[in-house]
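Bug: token stream looks shifted between consecutive jobs. Job 1:
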Amino acid sequence: MRGDIVIAGVGHTAHGKLPDRSTTSMNVEACRKALADAGVEKGMVDGLFVKYPTSQHRSMYGQIVAEALGIQPRIGGVWDQGGATNISMISFAAMAIEQGQCEVALVTIADNPRTGTRQAYERAWGEDDVYGWFGTPAGYAMIARRHMEEFGTTHEQLGAIAVAARRHGANNPDAQLRKPLTLEEYAVSRPVVEPLRRDDCCLISDGGAAVVVMSAERARSLKVDAAVPILGFGQGQTSWEVAQRPSLTETAAAVSGRTAFEMAGLAPKDIQVAQLYDCFTITPLMTLEDYGFCAKGEGGRFVEDGAIEIGGALPVNTSGGLLSETGMPGMQLVIEGVRQIRGTSTNQVPGATTSLVSNQGGIMHTHSTLILGA
């Protein structure tokens, strides 16, 4: 399948606080923009893959979105792997297209935890309340603390990830938070759950985003101007709750990344820019390790001294990621990956021909990987 399926169009709403916007309306807006970007009429869409909204889950939500779009897809529905859902849905769409189950698919996400309810982020996960853990940050704090104890990872190394994301986001006109951050400012930001500080934690955002997926052959026949080939994808699932895992410093990114690299026929050394899920700073650090960009335990040293900033060895989250562009879980990273291959990013990596994107769900429960190429 390598290169046989493409992302033909991308679209998104504004990011941040969008009062009085339903998740349905944001999905429709994002899909409309993605179709316009691809130059495709909605009547051609026969696949619809929708991420469930964490702030307001509704039964048959995929059908609600289809009705609002005015389409009747052959295949579709709602998927839930947390933040890993977006890339997973793109891979499901790609496989459906490859097998002739649909020809043109919309993959879309919208949520409004900023102005709706953020209960999904505040409640205990599983039986976490038994350990006194409430809210999403608690589990990540335990993982970060274990990584620090096991490998000597420092606050300053986590801060380097926050500084890079905020520097990139400050140059992105669509970013929710356009304020650069220094390591000194990071060091005095308030603690949330030790060892995580405020600037280790992603934004809470309303918004929607969508992509159009089709075969490369169909894109050529439709004369799509800027279709981006999908070279590889993969998934991995830890599944167990944090307290039940045999190791807190290994993630399903290892399985997901290996699958994607094998499919693409590439290795980490071939990747020129990466968009890594950064719900908390510890997440991209461990993802870099598990993808093989560095050895286990060396992620902290890998991100130091501007190595993941524009001009560094591996620019990461060039639109600002979840820490600066939008906390909306994951599709914005795919869109920035597409922009990098198209050469249209506001923080363009010169000559980028390979772009890796990671998505991660829950408290490192699920992982999905996408590799795009020119």
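Job 2, same session, no restart:
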Amino acid sequence: MQPYIRPTYPFSALVGQPRLKQALVLNAVNPRIGGVLIRGEKGTAKSTAVRALAHLLPLITVVADCPYSCPPDQLDRMCGSCRGRLQAGEDLPLQQRTTRLVELPVSASEDRLVGSLDLEHALVEGQRRFEPGLLAQVNRGLLYVDEVNLLDDHLVDILLDAAAMGINTVEREGISISHPARFILVGTMNPEEGELRPQLLDRFGLVVEIGGLKNVRERVDVIQRRMEYDADPEQFVQRWSSNEHHLTEEIAAAKKLLPQVQISEQDMAAVAMLSLELGVDGHRADLAILETARTHAALEGRTTISLEDIRVAAQLALPHRMRRQPFAEVRLDEQQLSDVLNKAAQERQRGNEETAGRDELKKA
């Protein structure tokens, strides 16, 4: 007899924490944003939100017998085996399933994460045999790392490299194997238990700071909803099913629209101006803001980026990258952000007027 497994708490039933939910949905639409790190004290629904997000992700079609869940219609995202079979004219077996959620324990070893090579089999049989790890299981899925600040720095480096490159490479004793590893990366941490090194913090596309709710009404809502869920999980989930379905459709529609969203030179100039004015080192921030802004535009149903899209993206992608003194907390100056965006809006208007003037001269 199978043990009873309670249904996952609905994402749409979470109370408050709008920035947390926004960052998660943006990454669900576009994993190229680079993942999200959620920083907050214990008991602030970090893990609940991440697990709930997995249930909003759409069904995916995979090659049924592939350990990497390869997409059957995207040659450039296939593993070498599936690509070879397809090019040889083989009909690949297909399967439709939910997007996979994989949780990485703090105690995980490197071999558990990246996979390992069976050297004994290679020596005896003369053939390489790869034992896939968690990065193989999570391809095209959601990888959740709780207490990422307690994970070995070396493993965090591997995770972030794989997330950025979309490929996992394992090299042992002169043997090298690579496979696709494209996934949504979500890490959570309690700052009271230690910080991530700045170099690792910078590699997360977005960072969200959350805390306990300060509004009495919201805290009462949390209590009531949790008690209702504990009393009858199935009925509670059913009550929120319409909201969940609506969110799933929003994410799917935004994913479809995303390739059509254009980034103009004016958008790039506005983002570059922001990074310079706010004292941000490097260029990761610029790329993260633009990727997030175009994703926000897709969620809004638009194919062009507005300055409001850039504002939302900057609020999520900039604070953890700004220069600060040791042990000092960084807060994004909203007034300064508004001033820079207003300046960018004026530059954009001036550029549009000059373009319109040149077009009129050509017509004349």
